[in-house]
UniProtKB/TrEMBL annotation:
Molecular function in Gene Ontology: ATP binding; double-stranded RNA binding; hydrolase activity; RNA helicase activity
GO biological process, one term: positive regulation of transcription by RNA polymerase I
UniProt biased composition (Basic and acidic residues): 77-88
Domain Helicase ATP-binding: 157-333
Pfam families: DEAD, HA2_C, Helicase_C, OB_NTP_bind, WHD_HA2
Ranges for region Disordered: 1-47, 77-128
CDD domains with a match to the protein in the record: DEXHc_RHA-like, SF2_C_RHA
Protein's recorded name: RNA helicase
Length: 802
DNA sequence: GAGCACTGC
């Protein structure tokens, strides 16, 4: 395949002619091996693949779990325009016309990122849907008809006529994400919009694009007639005609805060529920309450019913049905007890090739070595094509194995290429997994669990699974999070294994024994059971749930965790003494920030502090990771220290970040060059500017900021530096420590010893007290994002809280 | 003188 073809990535499956061509080849290889899958609970149940099936086996899924946002190369002119608009937002300041740049204040230099729907081509497009859209739609119809979910359309429609809730289980490749919204859109009860939630931005965007094509309509803001749109942070592509709207879970939650009865929607489809993000758990709880309220007569704001479709990949139908069936606590009124809510269920088969699974005979500690052996065995035994995907725990193991594979391959033939894949890898390096390799070269992709759900690696036939992953765990007692290597669950192991059977029959090597597999947990522990709950609880309070302890949780967190979070919110004054949400709390809940950072923002807006714009800059920088590039060699590190000297501030990391953001925003000629010169991540800074702009807008809406407030661009005076750090302290009172006689630091709350992380500008310095952004435990307790503060400031805040 | 799985508003 030519390089150009490869770079088109997703597009090739969008083009039916191309798809036929490609799968024509694929069919030859795959057809003889098709048979029922060897494992129970595994989606290898398809026994017959006719010609059409094999043509369409992939597209819907490829769209559903798209690769990293590769630009889709053009086949529609407006798509191309839309794309170039988007890519402009993301490219360096260099590509933004200078004229526009000079005219704007620093605060606005990233103008255009938060897209307001406008219809530049409205006059042209209002007339009629262009023929090429209709042609495309017609070409896609036979593909849609051959999806496993297609025959279920009538069942799905009629069950939603009868009941308000449908639990739909559809395995990988069933086509549920693209088809279900279309089935619902033409139903008589569906007079308003349909929302479909997704855990990830890329999924929301590419699904919307696909459904727009299938329906032969424009996308989002392209035309008022567009029926399909999406809404993700910084990018809203919806219009007045939007009937089907894909959005991230976080976006729907924000909408729920503004409009608790979801008055613009006739139906809400919650997809990928099995991933069990905190947000999905909140959404399901809110929806259960809302449906209950509607069935009990509705509210003044809403009378028509709300239909809810819950879609999940694994077979956890029972727990979902039970969750929605249960009416309120038995003690509630007799009326409630009489209501017997009926929930419809539906199961759709997936489409997946069989995968042969092999276990180790004996357990091993050294996955890297076992993986290496298997990689080379496979390479010599199995014919090409067929790439290998290895699941490892983190960057260290990946880089270690990468070196080993490339070293060994060097000594033999040069036809095995190891490629790392993890989130912290720069975008261009991640893209290498999609590029074509030299003739007769086999790729070995070494990945973290980014490849489990977020990125679909093409061409994989062999999976090697170490059976572990790193998991962040919140420890209530200490109030700190730590990252631990833990065994994965059986469902995660099955998910990893499935990655070998997406394009043809495959093989999976598990670097553990069959006994080991059996002792794994069945499911991954839902996030809500292992994270800090303060943000989730504040969202609930803001949404009008007063009794959070009795919120309908799909999995109820331990009482201790809930109480800990409530206490934290009380300390932040987000809650009043009686537990109801305060004005401060309502403000904090509206920001896309943790309650602690939100509290800092609100504090900075007080007249006696008056440093809101500066604090927004700092918070924006704290919201992304690694503004400063991590350098490997000693030489480069020294170079960076020297180059950054002019932006480093003795007061600590918060003010250093402030100066960095200010300088970057002031830079009028070439921000990318400025970043390179100071060893700052340009990608991170672009993100910082997006967040900064959003926070400034939100502060203006909340009247914390007036539109004519001047953007300060000078480094802050000493008085303002104090105000900034005192505002930070107000949110981070539990993240403070004081210097002990022996030179160590001990936290004021909890008496925990912490050390200043070497990445801090305060590393190695001794000051009377510190406030820090983050507390990480990796062999030793580290404070990261540290600033020096006066001990009496800390005491002052502690006294006001206690 | 250390090291960081992955999302998202």
């Amino acid at each position: 395949m030519s390089k150009q073809k490869q770079s088109e990535g997703q597009t090739s499956v969008n083009n039916p002619a191309d798809a036929t061509l490609k799968s024509g080849k694929k069919r030859k290889r795959a057809a003889p091996k098709l048979e029922a899958g060897p494992l129970k609970g595994f989606a290898g149940k398809v026994t017959k693949f006719n010609e059409d099936d094999s043509i369409v086996a992939a597209p819907a899924e490829i769209h559903k779990e798209p690769v990293i946002d590769i630009a889709v190369t053009g086949y529609h002119s407006h798509e191309a325009e839309e794309r170039s608009k988007r890519s402009q937002d993301q490219t360096s300041a260099k590509s933004v016309p200078k004229l526009r740049h000079r005219k704007t204040r620093p605060a606005d230099t990233n103008a255009g990122v938060i897209k307001q729907p406008d219809y530049p081509r409205a006059n042209k497009s209002r007339e009629a849907v262009p023929p090429h859209l209709l042609k495309k739609r017609d070409a896609l119809l036979p593909i849609r008809k051959s999806l496993p979910i297609w025959p279920q359309a009538d069942t799905i429609k009629s069950s939603l006529k009868k009941n308000n809730i449908l639990v739909l289980t559809g395995e990988t490749g069933s086509g549920k994400s693209t088809q279900v919204p279309q089935f619902l859109a033409s139903e008589p009860w569906c007079t308003k919009c349909i929302a479909i939630t997704q855990p990830r931005r890329v999924a929301a965007i590419s699904l919307a694009r696909r459904v727009a094509e299938e329906m032969g309509t424009f996308m989002g803001g392209q035309s008022p007639a567009a029926k399909v749109g999406y809404s993700v942070r910084f990018d809203n592509a919806t219009g007045p005609g939007t009937k089907i709207k894909f959005l991230t879970e976080g976006m729907l939650l924000q909408e729920m805060l503004r409009d608790p009865v979801m008055s613009q929607y006739s139906a809400i489809v919650v997809d990928e529920v099995h991933e069990r993000s905190v947000n999905v758990d909140l959404i399901l709880g809110f929806l259960k309450n809302l449906v209950e309220q509607m069935e009990n007569g509705g509210s003044s704001k809403r009378k028509d019913p709300l239909k809810v479709v819950v879609m999940s990949a694994t077979a956890d139908v029972e727990s979902l049905v039970k969750f929605f069936e249960d009416s309120r606590a038995p003690s509630s009124s007799a009326l409630n007890a009489q209501i017997e809510r009926r929930i419809s269920t539906c199961f759709v088969e997936g489409r997946q090739y069989p995968v042969k699974t092999t276990y180790l005979p004996e357990p091993t500690q050294d996955w890297v070595e076992s993986a290496l052996k298997i990689i080379f065995q496979l390479h010599y035994k199995e014919p090409l094509p067929g790439d290998v995907l290895v699941f490892l725990t983190g960057q260290d193991a990946i880089e270690g194995l990468e070196k080993l594979v490339n070293d060994y391959a060097e000594g033999m033939d040069k036809d095995l290429l190891a490629l790392p894949l993890f989130a912290a890898l720069p975008q261009h390096a991640q893209q290498r997994i999609f590029q074509s390799t030299p003739f007769r070269t086999r790729k070995v992709i070494l990945a973290t669990n980014i490849a489990e759900t977020s990125v679909t690696v093409p061409g994989v036939r062999y999976v090697i699974d170490c059976g572990k992953s790193k998991i962040k765990q919140f420890r209530n007692r200490l109030g700190l999070e730590s990252l631990l290597v833990k065994p994965i669950s059986r469902s995660a192991a099955i998910q990893r294994q499935g990655r070998a059977g997406r394009e043809a029959a495959g093989q999976c090597y598990r670097l553990y024994t069959e006994e080991g597999f059996k002792t794994m947990d069945e499911r991954t522990t839902p996030e809500i059971l292992r994270c800090d709950l303060s943000q989730a609880l504040l969202t609930m309070k803001a949404r009008g749930v007063h009794d959070v302890l009795n919120f309908p949780f799909l999995d109820r967190p331990p009482r201790e965790a809930l109480e800990k979070a409530l206490l934290q919110l009380l300390h932040l004054q987000a809650l009043s003494d009686d537990g109801s949400i305060s004005d401060v709390g309502l403000k904090i809940a509206k920001f896309p920030l943790t309650p602690t950072l939100g509290r800092v923002l609100v504090e900075a807006a007080k007249p006696e502090r008056d440093c809101l714009l500066d604090v927004i800059d700092i918070i924006s920088a704290l919201s992304v990771e690694n503004v400063f590039l991590n350098l490997v060699t000693e030489e480069r590190k020294e170079e960076a220290e020297e180059a950054r000297r002019e932006i480093y501030r003795r007061e600590g990391d918060h003010l250093t970040l402030l100066v960095t953001v200010q300088r970057y925003a002031e830079e009028q000629t070439d921000r990318k060059v400025w970043c390179e010169k100071h060893f700052v991540s340009h990608r991170a800074m672009q993100n910082v500017m997006n967040i900064r702009k959003q926070l400034q807008q939100q502060c203006t809406q909340l009247k914390l900021l007036s539109p004519d407030d001047d953007q300060s661009s000078s480094a802050p005076s000493e008085a303002r530096s104090q105000a900034i750090l005192q505002s930070v302290l107000r949110g981070f009172i539990s993240n403070t420590a004081r210097l002990m006689p022996d030179g160590s630091y001990k936290t004021l709350i909890g008496n925990q010893i912490v050390a200043i992380h070497p990445s801090s500008v305060l590393f190695g310095r001794k000051v009377e007290a510190i406030v820090f952004n983050e507390f990480v435990f990796t062999g030793k307790a580290w404070a990261r994002g540290v600033s020096a503060v006066q001990l009496d400031w800390v005491s002052e805040v502690v006294e006001s809280v206690m």
